[in-house]
Amino acid sequence: MKKNKEKIHQILVKAKEYLWITIAVAIITFALEYFFFPNLIASGGISGLALVLNSVFNIEPSILILGFNIILFALAFLLVGGSFGGRSIYASVLLAVFMWITEKLLSPRAITENLFLASIFGSLIIALGTAIVFNQGSSTGGTSIIAKIINKYFHIPIGQGLLLTDCTVTILAMYVFGVELGLFGLLSAIVVGILVDKFIAGFNPVKQVFIITSKEKLVVDFIMKDINRGCTILAGKGGFTGGDTSIVYTVLTSRQFITLKNFIKENNPDAFITVTESTEALGQGFTEH
Protein backbone atom coordinates (compact mmCIF):
# COMPACT_ATOMS: atom_id res chain seq x y z
CA MET A 1 0.00 0.00 0.00
CA LYS A 2 2.80 2.39 0.96
CA LYS A 3 4.73 1.54 -2.24
CA ASN A 4 1.63 2.23 -4.33
CA LYS A 5 1.21 5.64 -2.69
CA GLU A 6 4.86 6.45 -3.35
CA LYS A 7 4.49 5.45 -7.01
CA ILE A 8 1.35 7.57 -7.36
CA HIS A 9 3.14 10.49 -5.72
CA GLN A 10 6.11 10.13 -8.09
CA ILE A 11 3.76 10.00 -11.09
CA LEU A 12 1.95 13.15 -9.91
CA VAL A 13 5.28 14.95 -9.38
CA LYS A 14 6.43 14.00 -12.88
CA ALA A 15 3.09 15.03 -14.36
CA LYS A 16 3.33 18.41 -12.64
CA GLU A 17 6.86 18.93 -13.98
CA TYR A 18 5.81 18.14 -17.54
CA LEU A 19 2.73 20.34 -17.21
CA TRP A 20 4.90 23.31 -16.21
CA ILE A 21 7.30 22.57 -19.08
CA THR A 22 4.34 22.48 -21.49
CA ILE A 23 3.06 25.84 -20.21
CA ALA A 24 6.56 27.33 -20.43
CA VAL A 25 7.07 26.13 -24.01
CA ALA A 26 3.70 27.64 -24.97
CA ILE A 27 4.86 30.97 -23.48
CA ILE A 28 8.14 30.83 -25.44
CA THR A 29 6.26 29.96 -28.64
CA PHE A 30 3.96 32.96 -28.16
CA ALA A 31 6.91 35.33 -27.81
CA LEU A 32 8.70 33.95 -30.86
CA GLU A 33 5.68 33.90 -33.15
CA TYR A 34 4.05 37.19 -32.12
CA PHE A 35 7.00 39.42 -31.22
CA PHE A 36 10.28 38.18 -32.73
CA PHE A 37 9.65 36.33 -35.98
CA PRO A 38 7.17 38.78 -37.58
CA ASN A 39 9.61 41.62 -36.86
CA LEU A 40 12.68 39.65 -38.05
CA ILE A 41 14.34 39.88 -34.62
CA ALA A 42 16.87 37.05 -34.33
CA SER A 43 17.58 36.97 -30.61
CA GLY A 44 20.38 34.45 -30.77
CA GLY A 45 20.11 30.72 -30.25
CA ILE A 46 18.62 28.09 -32.52
CA SER A 47 15.38 30.06 -32.93
CA GLY A 48 17.34 33.09 -34.20
CA LEU A 49 19.33 30.91 -36.59
CA ALA A 50 16.09 29.32 -37.83
CA LEU A 51 14.65 32.77 -38.54
CA VAL A 52 17.75 33.74 -40.56
CA LEU A 53 17.73 30.51 -42.57
CA ASN A 54 13.98 30.81 -43.13
CA SER A 55 14.56 34.14 -44.87
CA VAL A 56 17.30 32.64 -47.06
CA PHE A 57 15.89 29.18 -47.88
CA ASN A 58 12.17 29.63 -47.08
CA ILE A 59 12.09 26.62 -44.74
CA GLU A 60 9.63 26.83 -41.84
CA PRO A 61 11.37 27.80 -38.55
CA SER A 62 9.62 25.00 -36.65
CA ILE A 63 11.08 22.38 -39.00
CA LEU A 64 14.54 23.94 -38.77
CA ILE A 65 14.43 24.05 -34.96
CA LEU A 66 13.36 20.40 -34.75
CA GLY A 67 16.07 19.35 -37.22
CA PHE A 68 18.80 21.31 -35.43
CA ASN A 69 17.83 19.93 -32.04
CA ILE A 70 17.82 16.32 -33.29
CA ILE A 71 21.35 16.82 -34.63
CA LEU A 72 22.51 18.60 -31.47
CA PHE A 73 21.06 15.99 -29.10
CA ALA A 74 22.73 13.25 -31.16
CA LEU A 75 26.06 15.11 -30.92
CA ALA A 76 25.54 15.66 -27.20
CA PHE A 77 25.06 11.94 -26.53
CA LEU A 78 28.16 11.13 -28.61
CA LEU A 79 30.47 13.89 -27.36
CA VAL A 80 29.22 14.80 -23.88
CA GLY A 81 27.27 11.78 -22.70
CA GLY A 82 23.63 11.22 -21.80
CA SER A 83 23.28 14.17 -19.44
CA PHE A 84 20.42 15.69 -21.44
CA GLY A 85 17.38 13.97 -19.98
CA GLY A 86 13.92 13.19 -21.26
CA ARG A 87 12.53 16.51 -20.07
CA SER A 88 14.89 18.46 -22.32
CA ILE A 89 14.10 16.27 -25.32
CA TYR A 90 10.38 16.68 -24.57
CA ALA A 91 10.70 20.48 -24.31
CA SER A 92 12.71 20.84 -27.53
CA VAL A 93 10.35 18.65 -29.55
CA LEU A 94 7.29 20.33 -28.06
CA LEU A 95 8.65 23.77 -28.99
CA ALA A 96 8.88 22.70 -32.64
CA VAL A 97 5.38 21.18 -32.51
CA PHE A 98 3.82 24.28 -30.91
CA MET A 99 5.52 26.53 -33.44
CA TRP A 100 4.35 24.38 -36.35
CA ILE A 101 0.75 24.41 -35.06
CA THR A 102 0.89 28.19 -34.55
CA GLU A 103 2.32 28.80 -38.02
CA LYS A 104 -0.16 26.49 -39.78
CA LEU A 105 -3.39 27.17 -37.91
CA LEU A 106 -3.14 30.66 -36.44
CA SER A 107 -1.17 32.62 -39.07
CA PRO A 108 0.55 34.74 -36.40
CA ARG A 109 1.11 38.45 -36.95
CA ALA A 110 3.17 40.96 -34.97
CA ILE A 111 1.38 42.34 -31.92
CA THR A 112 3.49 45.47 -32.32
CA GLU A 113 5.71 46.60 -35.19
CA ASN A 114 7.68 48.90 -32.91
CA LEU A 115 11.04 47.09 -32.81
CA PHE A 116 11.99 48.38 -29.37
CA LEU A 117 8.70 47.29 -27.80
CA ALA A 118 8.85 43.94 -29.61
CA SER A 119 12.41 43.35 -28.37
CA ILE A 120 11.68 44.25 -24.74
CA PHE A 121 8.32 42.52 -24.30
CA GLY A 122 9.34 39.53 -26.42
CA SER A 123 12.47 39.13 -24.29
CA LEU A 124 10.46 39.46 -21.08
CA ILE A 125 8.05 36.71 -22.13
CA ILE A 126 10.77 34.38 -23.41
CA ALA A 127 12.79 34.87 -20.20
CA LEU A 128 9.76 33.93 -18.13
CA GLY A 129 9.16 30.77 -20.13
CA THR A 130 12.83 29.84 -20.12
CA ALA A 131 13.08 30.34 -16.34
CA ILE A 132 10.12 27.99 -15.81
CA VAL A 133 11.77 25.37 -18.02
CA PHE A 134 15.06 25.66 -16.10
CA ASN A 135 13.21 25.41 -12.79
CA GLN A 136 11.92 22.01 -13.88
CA GLY A 137 15.47 20.80 -14.54
CA SER A 138 15.02 21.02 -18.29
CA SER A 139 15.99 23.13 -21.29
CA THR A 140 14.76 23.62 -24.84
CA GLY A 141 18.03 22.30 -26.27
CA GLY A 142 19.70 24.49 -28.87
CA THR A 143 22.61 26.65 -27.77
CA SER A 144 22.75 25.14 -24.28
CA ILE A 145 23.92 21.91 -25.95
CA ILE A 146 26.48 23.74 -28.10
CA ALA A 147 27.77 25.57 -25.02
CA LYS A 148 28.22 22.32 -23.11
CA ILE A 149 30.15 20.74 -26.00
CA ILE A 150 32.37 23.84 -26.25
CA ASN A 151 32.90 23.73 -22.48
CA LYS A 152 34.06 20.10 -22.55
CA TYR A 153 36.48 20.33 -25.47
CA PHE A 154 37.71 23.93 -25.29
CA HIS A 155 37.30 24.57 -21.53
CA ILE A 156 35.33 27.75 -22.17
CA PRO A 157 32.73 28.47 -19.42
CA ILE A 158 29.17 27.62 -20.44
CA GLY A 159 28.02 31.24 -20.06
CA GLN A 160 30.72 32.42 -22.43
CA GLY A 161 29.87 29.58 -24.82
CA LEU A 162 26.25 30.72 -24.92
CA LEU A 163 27.32 34.31 -25.56
CA LEU A 164 29.66 33.14 -28.35
CA THR A 165 26.92 31.22 -30.16
CA ASP A 166 24.39 34.05 -29.73
CA CYS A 167 26.87 36.59 -31.12
CA THR A 168 27.48 34.33 -34.13
CA VAL A 169 23.75 34.22 -34.85
CA THR A 170 23.53 38.00 -34.41
CA ILE A 171 26.30 38.54 -36.96
CA LEU A 172 24.43 36.33 -39.45
CA ALA A 173 21.25 38.31 -38.76
CA MET A 174 23.06 41.58 -39.45
CA TYR A 175 24.24 40.19 -42.79
CA VAL A 176 20.75 38.97 -43.82
CA PHE A 177 18.41 41.55 -42.23
CA GLY A 178 20.68 44.57 -41.85
CA VAL A 179 22.62 46.06 -38.96
CA GLU A 180 19.62 47.64 -37.18
CA LEU A 181 17.59 44.44 -36.95
CA GLY A 182 20.74 42.54 -36.00
CA LEU A 183 21.37 44.93 -33.12
CA PHE A 184 17.79 44.52 -31.89
CA GLY A 185 18.42 40.78 -31.93
CA LEU A 186 21.59 41.26 -29.86
CA LEU A 187 19.67 43.51 -27.44
CA SER A 188 17.04 40.82 -27.01
CA ALA A 189 19.64 38.10 -26.39
CA ILE A 190 21.28 40.22 -23.67
CA VAL A 191 17.95 41.10 -22.03
CA VAL A 192 16.81 37.45 -22.04
CA GLY A 193 20.11 36.34 -20.47
CA ILE A 194 19.76 38.89 -17.67
CA LEU A 195 16.06 38.32 -17.01
CA VAL A 196 16.24 34.51 -16.90
CA ASP A 197 18.59 34.67 -13.92
CA LYS A 198 16.45 37.33 -12.26
CA PHE A 199 13.30 35.22 -12.65
CA ILE A 200 15.04 32.14 -11.30
CA ALA A 201 16.85 33.64 -8.37
CA GLY A 202 15.61 37.16 -7.79
CA PHE A 203 18.61 39.36 -7.15
CA ASN A 204 20.69 36.66 -5.43
CA PRO A 205 23.17 35.15 -7.88
CA VAL A 206 24.55 32.22 -5.84
CA LYS A 207 23.45 29.68 -3.27
CA GLN A 208 25.44 28.09 -0.45
CA VAL A 209 24.37 24.46 -0.20
CA PHE A 210 24.94 22.00 2.67
CA ILE A 211 24.05 18.36 1.99
CA ILE A 212 24.02 15.78 4.76
CA THR A 213 24.19 12.44 2.98
CA SER A 214 25.15 8.81 3.35
CA LYS A 215 26.01 8.70 -0.37
CA GLU A 216 28.95 11.08 -0.30
CA LYS A 217 30.71 9.75 -3.42
CA LEU A 218 27.54 9.83 -5.54
CA VAL A 219 26.81 13.45 -4.67
CA VAL A 220 30.43 14.64 -4.89
CA ASP A 221 30.99 12.97 -8.27
CA PHE A 222 27.86 14.62 -9.68
CA ILE A 223 28.89 18.07 -8.41
CA MET A 224 32.46 17.73 -9.69
CA LYS A 225 31.87 15.98 -13.03
CA ASP A 226 28.37 16.92 -14.18
CA ILE A 227 27.95 20.40 -12.74
CA ASN A 228 31.67 21.17 -13.02
CA ARG A 229 31.79 22.84 -9.62
CA GLY A 230 34.02 22.29 -6.58
CA CYS A 231 32.88 21.24 -3.13
CA THR A 232 34.18 20.60 0.39
CA ILE A 233 33.52 17.45 2.44
CA LEU A 234 33.06 17.89 6.17
CA ALA A 235 32.95 15.07 8.72
CA GLY A 236 29.80 15.05 10.85
CA LYS A 237 28.14 13.05 13.57
CA GLY A 238 24.40 12.56 13.99
CA GLY A 239 23.08 14.13 17.18
CA PHE A 240 20.28 11.58 17.48
CA THR A 241 21.90 8.43 16.08
CA GLY A 242 25.49 9.15 17.09
CA GLY A 243 26.60 7.72 13.75
CA ASP A 244 29.20 9.24 11.45
CA THR A 245 27.94 11.10 8.40
CA SER A 246 29.28 13.36 5.65
CA ILE A 247 28.40 16.98 4.97
CA VAL A 248 29.02 18.24 1.45
CA TYR A 249 29.36 22.01 1.11
CA THR A 250 29.25 23.76 -2.26
CA VAL A 251 28.41 27.14 -3.79
CA LEU A 252 26.32 27.06 -6.96
CA THR A 253 24.51 29.32 -9.35
CA SER A 254 20.74 29.06 -9.28
CA ARG A 255 20.64 26.91 -12.43
CA GLN A 256 23.30 24.57 -11.06
CA PHE A 257 21.40 24.22 -7.79
CA ILE A 258 18.22 23.26 -9.66
CA THR A 259 20.20 20.57 -11.49
CA LEU A 260 21.68 19.27 -8.23
CA LYS A 261 18.33 19.35 -6.42
CA ASN A 262 16.66 17.28 -9.14
CA PHE A 263 19.54 14.79 -9.14
CA ILE A 264 19.42 14.33 -5.35
CA LYS A 265 15.62 14.06 -5.39
CA GLU A 266 15.88 11.15 -7.81
CA ASN A 267 19.04 9.42 -6.55
CA ASN A 268 19.40 10.25 -2.84
CA PRO A 269 15.94 11.27 -1.55
CA ASP A 270 16.97 10.67 2.09
CA ALA A 271 19.63 13.39 1.95
CA PHE A 272 19.07 16.53 4.03
CA ILE A 273 19.72 19.81 2.18
CA THR A 274 19.92 23.37 3.47
CA VAL A 275 20.27 26.32 1.12
CA THR A 276 21.37 29.86 1.95
CA GLU A 277 21.17 32.77 -0.46
CA SER A 278 24.40 34.72 -0.93
CA THR A 279 24.64 38.08 -2.65
CA GLU A 280 28.14 37.47 -4.00
CA ALA A 281 30.83 34.80 -4.38
CA LEU A 282 34.51 35.60 -4.92
CA GLY A 283 37.11 33.16 -6.15
CA GLN A 284 37.68 30.51 -8.79
CA GLY A 285 34.63 29.96 -10.95
CA PHE A 286 32.94 33.12 -9.69
CA THR A 287 33.81 36.82 -9.57
CA GLU A 288 37.53 37.49 -9.20
CA HIS A 289 38.80 39.15 -6.00
UniProtKB/TrEMBL annotation:
<keyword id="KW-1133">Transmembrane helix</keyword>
<keyword id="KW-1003">Cell membrane</keyword>
<keyword id="KW-0472">Membrane</keyword>
<dbReference type="Pfam" id="PF10035">
    <property type="entry name" value="DUF2179"/>
</dbReference>
<dbReference type="GO" id="GO:0005886">
    <property type="term" value="C:plasma membrane"/>
</dbReference>
<dbReference type="InterPro" id="IPR019264">
    <property type="entry name" value="DUF2179"/>
</dbReference>
<dbReference type="Pfam" id="PF02588">
    <property type="entry name" value="YitT_membrane"/>
</dbReference>
<dbReference type="InterPro" id="IPR015867">
    <property type="entry name" value="N-reg_PII/ATP_PRibTrfase_C"/>
</dbReference>
<protein>
    <submittedName>
        <fullName>Uncharacterized membrane-anchored protein YitT, contains DUF161 and DUF2179 domains</fullName>
    </submittedName>
</protein>
<dbReference type="InterPro" id="IPR051461">
    <property type="entry name" value="UPF0750_membrane"/>
</dbReference>
<keyword id="KW-0812">Transmembrane</keyword>
<dbReference type="InterPro" id="IPR003740">
    <property type="entry name" value="YitT"/>
</dbReference>
